[in-house]
């Protein structure tokens, strides 16, 4: 008589004992998702990382994709023992604050990408943040992909769902997942640069528009945020180039062409960021020149009014000396005539300065 599967035996024993079979334990909080993919299709059911890799290696086909969010050292060390991750790469993934890079440890690739998110601000201040950055690490092996995300943004749920609707792409293996992640990150770069371009266009219009005031500090703040974006974008060019040129046999030829497309998009982003830096430098110079011109205009106005006021002051000072032998001192109309002279002198100076656009 054929034996029943062990699962049915457990269920029957639980029914006889009056108890229900225990539900599978929920995944730890730091595990965002854990899926097994065979022939480009995700297998149903929830598994731990150990059960997932055992399933793949028992079948001899497919791969595991595990997504983690800010795990600590002890949590990541547990996966490192199961998947054979290098301790240096694990340390980088735990502590983050890495530059974009690509490294190979034995049969495992370790890639670091910087994620960015645009934050809209009505007015820039010293504490304003326009570009919020995070980090994304990926361990890629023959039959697994482990992603470690730091930061509150740049979720990979959309990437996973898109890839799951394209089994032909997932059939290419873990390298296809790495491409999907890199493509998603670079696409967010494009979105952020478009938003920053709009902000810079507004700044440029404000700088060169007449009778508008814009502080140079606002442009410096924008320049600082562009530098953060530059540090995220520029170092990624070399890792993508290496993946596109066949840096490792874990990336098949079919996937390399996709990486070349991502590299082209990154080149577009890099050119935009470089143009932002140059344009902001020009805007800073223009703003400082505009401030200097405004200060010169203000000084001319002040000088003109000082000249106008000094004329009656000089006349009053002379006639305030109280000497007996001064012209027109004892004349009946001396006082009103003196006031009239002061007024005419002030009006004459005012017209002269007004004609010369000092006032």
TrEMBL record:
Localization of this protein: Cell membrane; Membrane
InterPro entries referenced in this protein's UniProt entry, alphabetically: CorA_cytoplasmic_dom, CorA_TM1_TM2, Mg/Co-transport_prot_CorA, MgTranspt_CorA/ZnTranspt_ZntB
Keywords recorded for this protein, A-Z: Cell membrane, Ion transport, Magnesium, Membrane, Transmembrane, Transmembrane helix, Transport
Coiled-coil ranges from the UniProt annotation: none
Transmembrane segments: 302-321, 333-353
Pfam families with a match to the protein in the record: CorA (PF01544)
Membrane association type: Multi-pass membrane protein
Primary role: Mediates influx of magnesium ions.
Similarity comment: Belongs to the CorA metal ion transporter (MIT) (TC 1.A.35) family.
Name recorded for this polypeptide: Magnesium transport protein CorA
Organism placement in taxonomy: Bacteria, Bacillati, Actinomycetota, Actinomycetes, Pseudonocardiales
